Amino acid sequence: MAKTSVISEGDATKVSELKKELRFLVKAILEEEKDNEFISNSTKLCCIDVIDKAKEVLSCLKEVKIKKTTSLRVGDDHNDCSLSCPPEFRCPLSKQLMRDPVVISTGKTYDRPFIQKWLKAGHIICPLTQQVLSHSLLTPNYLVREMISQWCQTRGIKYLDPVTSINEDGSTETDRDRFVSLLDEMSKSMPEQKSAAKELRLLTKRTPSFRGLFGESSDYIPQLLKPLTQKRGLSRSRNNETVDPNLQEDLITTLLNISIHDSNKKLVAETPMVIPLLIDGLISGTPASRSNSAAALFTLSALDSNKILIGKSGAIKPLISLLDEGHPLAMKDAASAIFNLCIVQENKARAVHEGLVSVILKKIKNGVNVDELLAILAMLSTNQRAIQELTELGAVPTFLGIIREDSCARIRENCIAILYTICINDRTKLRDMREEERVHGTLSHLAQDGTSRAKRKANGILEKLNRSFNITHT
Predict the structure, then answer these.
(1) What is the pLDDT of residue 175?
(2) What would the mean pLDDT of 405-418 be, rounded to a whole number?
(3) Does pTM top 0.90 for this prediction?
(4) CA distance 63 to 9
């Protein structure tokens, strides 16, 4: 009987024919078993050939199934492949066959998406060696990649091309190449710098993966800001050298976009030229640059370590200036940044020293951003000098008027909290409180219908008024 040839991969017609032939052979074997006692020895030998033939057909069918399975992409069936691949081809983090092997600073190789995820989670050590990483740059391991490719090829496995592979953060190698190309253009002529800056601004706004790319190397942000750092250096030696305002705006906005990515905040703030350039943007940028510089400082100040760094840099004074005279939208960004920074005690002292109290009180009297600014004053009320300034600037009647006329529970709560601190530090202000209570009953009303905190503060002042009254009459 002729030997059955090996069926080519994916040939559905051949598979169908094999199954049809197998059914015929199995039927013949079963029929032979029924009549076994009546058939001759020659017929029995023929039946043995039929069984051999059936085994051969089964073998061919098995081969087709195996080829069909291994022809799948590694990305679709990588778990099965990983079980049988050499250990050195598996990522130490995922335990799967590596698609895009890269080397980190300790010399260990990982699959790019998984080591990126590790780094973006805030880890600064090598998962295998536990050594502190000297940098977060990922270098392609072409040797290991070629070895994996050859291993897959000999087993009929289609290995995923790194150009089309998608990283954990959604970026592709094509994205990465474009990213590096745009950063390179920051060292070229002004038109190329402006074009690249505008594109990076749009990409980092629309595509989170582009924000993440900046966190992969400490060299990327300095490359981005090279046009501004060059001009900043020149402007100190030549007064006629100025930064192109549109280029400055695009780069500052890109910094803002990058800072939104949580794992970038520390890297961005600790890059030496970033905060000085944001301060330049606050002082001399376009309205959008000033607003976005404040917004970037607000975003970066989410980390406590960055709050201290920004406070020491001298950024608080230009933020206060922006709050005082900026565009309404820029004022909100400045107020948000100042609020975050003043959570740290040492920044409260800096802000008060730079004149924040008088600027805020002026804005509140004019009805500008009352809610946000009162929240800042309530935070500053733990600073002795801030309370003294509020007293000297006649803040008590202003806050009492707001409690009497405003319906916002949070605004009224912050006002009474500040007034309570003023009364503790300056008992002479109790006279104003007593007169307000006598004429309007403001404190009593708040003690009844305010928030729980507002009630406590209002009752605290009322108790002081009663004690003061009793002492006076005694």
Answers:
(1) 83
(2) 94
(3) no
(4) 9
